[in-house]
Each structure stands twice: as structure tokens, then as C-alpha cells.
Amino acid sequence: MHKALNDTEAMELARRIKAWGLELGFQQVGISDTDLDEHESRLLAWLDAGRHGEMDYMARHGTRRSRPVELHPGTLRVISVRMDYQPPEARESWSVIHDPALGFVSRYALGRDYHKVLRNRLQQLATRIEAEIGPFGYRAFVDSAPVLEKALAEKAGLGWIGKHTNLLSREAGSWFFLGELYTDLPLPTDPPGEAHCGTCTACIEVCPTRAIVAPYELDARLCISYLTIELKGAIPEPLRPLMGNRIYGCDDCQLVCPWNRFARLSAEPDFRARHGLDGPALAELLAWDEATFLARTEGSAIRRIGHERWLRNVAVALGNGEALPGSIGVLESRTDHPSPLVREHAGWALARLRRRDTGVQHS
């Protein structure tokens, strides 16, 4: 048990925690209480509408997501952190998205798995606190448990939840990861973030699948990030042509956000693009066997979807491209793949390219 803190000591500890966080590579640290009643009602309505799709775990977790003390008993405060991830020297995003021969990977996934990077830093932060005040109750989270991380970060003053439902900062845009340290420390809290989206609707208008169904409302079932990462089965056919060449996630709503003109490139070596995935040739990606996929995605968040879904996504992207001999040939080689999922998507893509090659109209 940590020593009791008076108000002055708690304020000084909070100041030092923020300084330590910056030293550990976080760009911002804020502190909030655990009251998320307003966000809980929105979450429950979203779940009731079925907008979480196949992410059944979100419903199973119930109120543990919106009530930190249910997830980690004894929690009084949440220390929220952000770490910029925009990779330096990566190919310009729109140039990749507009080249049908290439595949687009969401910029957060180009480097090392962020879960490991942030969790390690949060543990170091907890160790620094422990060295100062003795053992205390805490638990670190990085997108790995039922946590309303954006709501907590907003309460901690790190920014506000934008119309695309991502967290936005006036100083840093949205190209950053979030992490949390649930603690039993009676720390002073920071003022919450204030919204600055104004009348802008750029993110709503650019969404390829119209997944942002209203300001601040996202239907995950339509979101390309959900379709390429969370969805385990077949991608609904009406949505496939809208996905373009996006094979792992989608950044369009962030790319058009005016606040991202203030975003900074990451200084973290772990977030630099690896294995040429900032603009890879689709035909080469579909030719990867499972061993190659595992080798090229080692230590990456991409590996979580597995080789089968990777081939599914790449096949769709090829089907949205041009009827080049290389594309048709590699798709034909996947029509006898052991996986029905891969065979079906490769077949769809082949049929689409062949119709295009013969001038037949298609959707």
C-alpha cells in the first residue's frame, strides 16, 4: 500500500508523473476520474443498434468498459497518455491510395506492434511512481481490454472525440496511440478537452463506405478498418468495390482532417515503416505463402489477422484494380487455395477483372 498523500503531495506527484511520462517518450499525459456515465449511455445505445458487428466481446464486457472500477477494483484515477506514430519517410498516403497496383496499410500498422511499445513504457512509468511512493494499485492498458480509452483521454484533457469518433488534439491532430494506467492514487484531475470540429464535415464526406453515419456516430459494420481487421468471414459484396486498395485499415478520415496539419512525425524508431509495407505491390502480396506472411509481419499488429484474411483483403484490392496479366495470374493461382474464404474472394476479383478486360459493365 502506498503512503497517504495530502493535497500538496498529490499535486506534486501528478506534476512529476507528467514529467516522467514525457521523458519516457509520451507526447502528453493527463489525469481523469472514472465517471463515464454520459459515454456509457452512448456505448449501450451503439451496442443495442448492432453497430459493433461481429465484435461480440464488446457486448459481453457490458459495463466493465465504461466503469473502470469494475475492470480494476480500487481505481480512483486514470492516467492517460498519447504517443505520436506518424512514420517518417513513409510513402505519401494519397499517392498509394490512388495507385491501384499498390496496397494501402493504415499508417499505425507500418511499424512495430504499438501494444508492446506503449505497454512497456507504461510499466516503466508505474515503476517510477512506485520508486517514489512505494507499492500502489495499478494496471496498464493499451487497446487490450474493455477500456473506453478515447472517452478517458478526452476527460484527461488530451483532446476531444471528433465527428469521425477518433480523438483529436489541436496541437497534434489524431496520428497518435493512447494508453492508460488505472491507479488507486488520489491525484488531481485535468480539465477535459473541448470540441473544435465546428461545422467541418470533411471526414464524413470522404469515408469510402459512408461508415460515419452521422456526426460522432460510426457504424463499424461499414468501416474498412472493421472489414479488413475485425471481420472474420466474407466481406459483403456490395462493400468490396468501395474498399479500393485498402488492405489493412483505412486512414481517409484522418488524412482529410484539417487538424492533422499540426500532427508531427514520430521520433520512435519502432514506428518506422518496415518491409516496404508503406506502398507494397498487391500482386506480390497475394503470392506470399504463410511462412512469408509470418516473417514479414513479425512484431507487427498486422499479424493478428492471419494469412487467410490477409489474402482475402489483398484479393479484393486486386479486384478493384486494373486487369493486368500479373494480377490475373496471381489471382488464378489462389482459386484452388485450401481456404474457401480465399477461393471465394479470389474468384470474385478474377470475375471482376475479366469483365473489366472485356468491357462488360459491372458494379
From TrEMBL:
Keyword set includes Repeat: no
Top EC class, one word: oxidoreductase
Binding site for [4Fe-4S] cluster 2: C207, C223, C250, C253
Chief place where the protein resides: cytoplasm
4Fe-4S ferredoxin-type domain residues: 185-217
Compartment(s): Cytoplasm
Keyword terms, alphabetized: 4Fe-4S, Cobalamin, Cobalt, Cytoplasm, Iron, Iron-sulfur, Metal-binding, Oxidoreductase, Queuosine biosynthesis, tRNA processing
Cofactor list: [4Fe-4S] cluster; cob(II)alamin
E.C. number(s) listed in UniProt: 1.17.99.6
Pfam families reported in the protein's UniProt record: Fer4_16, QueG_DUF1730
Gene Ontology CC annotation, any one: cytoplasm
Protein name as catalogued: Epoxyqueuosine reductase
